[in-house]
Design a protein that fits this description.
With about 180 residues, the chain is mainly alpha-helical. The protein has a single domain, classed as Methane Monooxygenase Hydroxylase, Chain G, domain 1 (Up-down Bundle). It has five helices and no strands.
Length: about 180
């Protein structure tokens, strides 16, 4: 009679695995593009989709491990690039004495830095970013328009007379007396 167990077709299973790998590769390429552009929110969504695709039990274990590690690496790379861009924008704002923009960029910098650290960023990343953050916080707000305690407003009257005032111009010696 009829058996309830289905016979496995190795060719169909191979095509299914190839299709899964192709979808994972396409998602990986999309994630790579987002990491290049430092699009953190898009990279996070693309990494989550790639991990979901890689969790398919039909996918071989080595491929599953590869796709998951690449998803984490590329998401981390996107956050590192976003942190670096925020450092540069914050430094430019600090040098321009734009405190509001500087504070906004520092907030974005800290957020992306923590996300990159949670995604296992390289060891020196945190230390270098914190040094840059310290430099940003110490930059700017140095020049003051108007008087300060160190350089008060000069209200003393200008001296009317000077040593050169009232002296006649230097008389040139006669060139030639024959004329």
């Amino acid at each position: 009679m009829f058996s309830l167990a289905k016979k496995k077709d190795p060719e169909a299973e191979r095509r299914l695995i190839d299709a899964l790998k192709a979808r994972c590769d396409a998602q990986l390429a999309q994630l790579s593009g987002m990491a290049e552009k430092a699009d953190t929110s898009g990279a996070e969504r693309a990494a989550a989709r790639l991990v979901e695709l890689a969790k398919n039990p039909k996918l071989p274990g080595a491929d599953k491990k590869f796709y998951m590690s690449e998803a984490q690496r590329l998401e981390c790379e996107a956050n590192i690039k976003a942190t670096d861009a925020a450092v540069h924008r914050a430094m430019a704002a600090a040098m321009a004495d734009d405190k509001e923009t500087r504070d906004k960029e520092i907030t974005a910098l800290r957020k992306t830095m923590q996300k990159a650290i949670s995604l296992r960023a390289p060891t020196g990343f945190r230390m270098n970013t914190e040094k840059s953050l310290e430099n940003i916080l110490l930059s700017g707000n140095v020049k003051h328009d108007g008087p300060t305690k160190a350089k008060p407003l000069d209200t003393a009257p200008k001296l009317e007379r000077s040593a050169k005032d009232g002296l006649p111009a230097i008389v040139a010696a006669p060139q030639d007396a024959k004329e």
